[in-house]
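Need tokens for this chain, all 400 residues.
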Amino acid sequence: MYALDLEVIFGRHWLFCATEAEIPEPGDFVTVEVGSTSVIIVRDDDEGVSALLNVCRHRGSRIVDDPCGAVGNFVCPYHQWTYRTDGSLIFAESSQPGFDRSAFGLRRVPVRSLAGLVFVCLSDEPPVDFDEVAGVLEPYLAPYRLAGLKVAHQTDLMEAGNWKLVMENNRECLHCDAGHPELTSAYFPFIQYSPEDVTPRLRALYERFLQAESRLASAGAAAGIPSGSHRELDGRASGYMIRHFPLDGDGASFGMGGKPISRKLVGEITDPAFGDMSLHFQPNSWFHFCSDHAVVFRALPVAPDRTLVRTTWLVHADAVEGVDYDVDTLTEVWKATNDEDRGFVERQQRGVSDPGYLPGPYATVEDDVESFVTWYIQRMQYHFGGGRDHLGLVPRAAAQ
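Here are the structure tokens for all 400 residues:
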């Protein structure tokens, strides 16, 4: 099943891998490992974003070992074949007569930047609905000007659980009230709640949430943010959800009690109490955009029971550490939350591996978990010829 997940889910869908803020200058690069595949994401000399397989076209050596860095050209350490940042081959010593360098550039990987968020697909035939999804999402994200932010901090957390458990845990907040005291000092735990789902214990908090939601709607309208949310987490290849979500307390950011955590507001945002623009993208990412920073997450499997979760905090390009923000305050809430989620996932991995495990029904507020599982099953059905994609296209294997 792990090999099938790598082939079908991570090999044929758009994966969030990095932000443009991580590669601000020509020659800046990051590497991404997906199973045995290594991809270089690089700002090329024309200041575009390229994605290249990290495999020399001569004898197959890995070209780059570092997770990030900056280069003028890529030089294979084995025999010094040399490539421009767009992947084109410019030097190959002792080549045979008639050798055509233009035919031996680094293999390119489909890559798209969505408002500064970089997605790659390892298939030569990526899902065609990305443009449609991007058209929905870009008006929500444009005011944050994410491509012009800078990386303030980044952490990697290895979770001893299958990647699907990591994503299921992320896709619900039923556990938040008891499990994330730092997060819920700012974050209302009402993802996919309807009024009838609110228990008596949560009624006062829910009323405060509704009031904050009304205030945020006015702030969003003033900033030109589209009204309402969009939720298509299943039923299409590039499943997503976006919602402008209020924050508790000061309503400004993910500081304790909703307090600001950077003095400089990002992009075109002028109202500090601008809540949280929350984005989920299948199969491996989630995002939170606030008035003063953004925090982005990606999950990539490294073994059947190991998942690497990377968290990146972005701030205004001119924000100065120690003056406008400090890293400890910036990262306090999500570092604690990530560690708590790691514990939940690892406990669940041990439990579902127990031969005595029998699953129970979903709660009424676990819709997004069910949507993730439904999306996964749909994509597997499509792979095996048992379904259609959202455009009504049958898989190639079924058509044949």
